[in-house]
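Hi U.,

Before I forget, here's the chain from the pilot set. I'm dumping it here mostly so it's searchable later in email.
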Amino acid sequence: MEFDRIYIPTGRLDQTIAYYTDGLGFKVILRWSEKGHRTAMLKRDDVIFVFGEGESLAPMKTMNFHIRVDDLEELADEFRSKNVEIIGDIETVHRGSKRLHVREPNGFLITFEQPLTNKQS
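Structure:
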């Protein structure tokens, strides 16, 4: 079994697409509209997000996402160069990884984590 995609309802589809493409480096791979809803699928590496906008899709503000990366420092530098707001500093956590957080336009927290090979704490 493997992870396929994350679906996220949004009230600001165009702003969300701009944030994920311009700031986080995702690419739009598909857009469609049907029954009063607009939807876009975005991808970076093996991570896929599907964002939908429509009256019946109320955004949930309590979700967060963890995305595993190979080089957190490089990713943080990329985000800084694109003026992506990073919340706090890169931190090392007890589970043997380091992480950083960003908040995207819908209020969702995205955590990027890099496993540490030597299990530093």
